[in-house]
Amino acid sequence: MSSLLTCSGTPKQTAAGSWSGVLASLAPQIRNASRRTAFPANVSERDLYKQLLLHLPRLSWDDLVDPQYVAREAERLAEMLLRDRGGFESWADQPKVRVLDKPDATVRACEPEVAREIHERFHYIRSYHPGRVHLALYLQSHPRIPAALASISSMDIKHLDWLFASADEKERVLVLTRLFAFDWAPRNSISYLLGQVCRWTKRNLPKVTTLLTYINPNLGFTGSSFLAANWRPFLEKPVAYSYFQDTYITHRRLSSLPASALTRVTRSLYELEALKILRYEMSEEHAPLNRCVC
After folding, report:
1. pTM for the predicted model, two decimal places
2. Alpha helices in the chain (DSSP H)
3. Dihedral sign, CA of 150, 162, 203, 199?
């Protein structure tokens, strides 16, 4: 039996077609809008492209095929990125570090305030997750600013309660909720940080047997760094994006909105690819979970 299962408990969504099919037709146009807008706006082209992929699924096909409409959306999102990062531009504007020199690299827990600034100002979700611990990769050339950040939380994912029914089972599972690296970070920063996260967990939380994380293929994420580090496919979860006043919001933020604000919430119009949930077993002696929904 395959270990790649489908999660239950996700509400049905209405869709106007496949988002992957839309991207197959419009990816060059979206890339072009990102490229033309990012440089004069002084924002990262990679970051702007992710924001476009996150926000465009709320638009109709007629809007998407209009180059001027997509260009205006790129400009709006670039302004949003600039506004979010006001006063912290120097964190992203650092000289590129070409090689990860491991003797000069340190992974340690960073202050929640630092993690909050990265989550809200630089991570594509733009939402702080308090988590249990934030492990940051620091380089001697950048002692104050983490080159990369991994945030770990207790297992509080409601739709996975059926897998971890007891409190003891939940205590043995952690969730990697945020993973981020600045553009200037060395190429192997994420892979190195993932390895250090596992070592830190084994040393400091020996009861933990399993790590979980989400990969969103709709934003171009493949999970290659995770797979190379022996994370394995586990579950798939259907997804639909929510937007409050035309801006993407997380499910956690959506659930906290007052009832009076829900009329200003819209949903993505297209069938998105399911989120991939990956699993890392801390030791081979812990047999992998192999449950399914029939």
Report:
1. 0.89
2. 19-41, 45-55, 61-64, 67-84, 89-92, 112-121, 167-171, 189-204, 224-228, 251-256
3. negative
